[in-house]
Give the backbone structure.
Amino acid sequence: MTQSINRDERLLRSALLIIVLFMLAEAVGGLLANSLTLLADAAHMLLDAAALGIAWFAARLSRREAHEHMSYGYHRSEVLAAFVNGMTLVILIVWIMFEAVTRLREAEPMLPVPVLVIGTLGLVVNIIVYRMLHRSQNLNVQSAALHVLGDLLGSVAAIAAAVVVLIFDWVYADPLLAVGIAAILSRGAWRVLRQSSHILLQGTPSGINVEEIRTALATSVAGLRDIHRVHVWSLSSNKQVLTLHADLVDGTDQSAAIGHIKCVLLHRFGIDHSTIQVDLDDCPDDSQRVP
């Protein structure tokens, strides 16, 4: 786990440096060429730099040890960073759409050659950075990779717009392609916001079924009469937590039963942090058992 976190942190730091350097070049080129697609991509790269910076800081913060005031540690910082990055994507999409509609109403000229050159360089840079990030299973890194994917699409759109303007002198290609970028980004932004919100609201992790846990424990743990008040949630995109109450048959070795429950949770469901409460009589939390 630690090696994976350190690897994600290094990837985010390298990606941040590359994006910042090219963002400056693209912004200057967009202003000189008067290209909305290029300026939109440069603006997106500015948000990317912020997103990567937030993601990198969150990755570093998540390594801090738990203490009295943060008993679970800082794992949620990465999920919070993913949520913030998803919201910045929404803001970016709204801005691109507004600018595109404005230019569709009143077209503005652009210089296609600088856009073509910078867009091609941007495509190469974004492919390199995206390949660095997209294979990570960490939601924080995935949200940063989504920003970079938007840049990659922006570079493709900038190249296409430049070619169309260069050959056909049709300036509407630039804002229309910007709309296409916004549409593609919308789907990814929704996914990141949905996943991060689900974790922040302590929803049941994807791929884990509470009824399957009940069945697995009932058929595997000797002396287990019943389990109730089962709660499963995520601290981060790859760390799950579970609590449950267990009723044991009289005479059952409590320590052995708890150890067996924890073993099933770890090896069958990948849950390595669980808290098991054995009820010696009626459930002390509530006389009426609820799921």
Notes: Residues 94 and 171 are 21 Å apart (CA to CA). The radius of gyration is 25 Å. The longest strand covers residues 224-236.
